[in-house]
Amino acid sequence: MGWASTGEGELEKPDSLICQAAQRGNSSSRMEGKACYLNRPKVELHVHLDGSFKPETIIHFAKRRQIKIPADTAEELIRIVSYNEPLTLTEFLTKFNYYMPAIAGDREAIKRVAYEFLEMKAKEGVVYVEVRYSPHFLANSKVDPIPWGQKEGDITPDDVVNLVNQGLREGEKAFNIKARSILCCMRHMPNWSLEVVELCKKYQNDTVVAIDLAGDESLNLEAAPGHRKAYEEAVRCGIHRTVHAGEVGPPSVVKEAVEVLKAERIGHGYHTIEDPHLYKELLNKKMHFEVCNVFTFMIMDCHK
Ligand SMILES: [Zn+2]
User: Which in 88, 133, 270, 297 has the greatest CB count within 10 A?
Assistant: First the structure.
């Protein structure tokens, strides 16, 4: 996804909560007048499912499940999630606390957000998408700790992958789009990572194409061997690997992603350029950097 100058023809308005919030927050900024999407077929390789829910769907499930979130209407929710000044990555991620409880731990909701995600992407002209998410963040059983203050239920991380896959398969047919998924390990949860790689193996032929590591880059990888072990297993089993690195962290995080975790693609990687030697090395290796200009603009560390 990228902000771009208006192309020919009519542009679709974005539907997802985060994108609408970004548009609203930046309406008076230098992004004004820019269109969200080009009217060309697109391939999107770095997009988070849990950042792409429709606000109406969040409100619907919050009401139906009687889960308290800080908004009663979609418009109110967009306002709460919006921001006018660039945030730090950590500040940005706290916004997830507002709405994740409405979707996590509900079979119908999880399947529906995956299905609707493809509806939105098809409207944006995306023909192939790799969507990523943490299965643990949407579970309420066999996950420690249970996220978002949920009560224990019966949806395991394995169930989550199954439900997302169902939504994606149905969405592919309904909206004529090809979708694959990437399962995320979270840097602050190294105890989840071995299960993530096992899920990648189990669902390797059922939409899942790769493993990812997301979250706070300041956390020391050496102190959390769970991630390294999961990536070693991914290498052993031929699971593709991408890692969020150098988005807000220094080039050493990128180096570690490539050398220790054997990443084949780097999520963002902007700070790589601060180490010219590493930058040249990765250029020679033809490393793929998954970049997102709008998100870079919106988080403070990259905005500086
Ligand atoms: Zn990301």
Answer: 133
| Tokens, residue 237 | 């089993």
The rounded radius of gyration (Å) of the Cα atoms in the chain is: 19
Catalytic residue among 124, 195, 233, 247: 247
In this prediction the pTM is: 0.85
Peptide bond into 145 cis (omega under 30): yes
* Cα–ligand 1 centroid distance for 66 (angstroms): 30
Sign of CA dihedral 169, 172, 178, 179: negative
Cα–ligand 1 centroid distance for 132 (angstroms): 8
Q: How far is the CA of 95 from the centre of ligand 1 (A)?
A: 15
Q: Tell me: the pLDDT tens digits for 49-74?
A: 999 999 999 999 999 999 999 999 99
Task: Look up 124 and say whether it is catalytic.
Answer: no
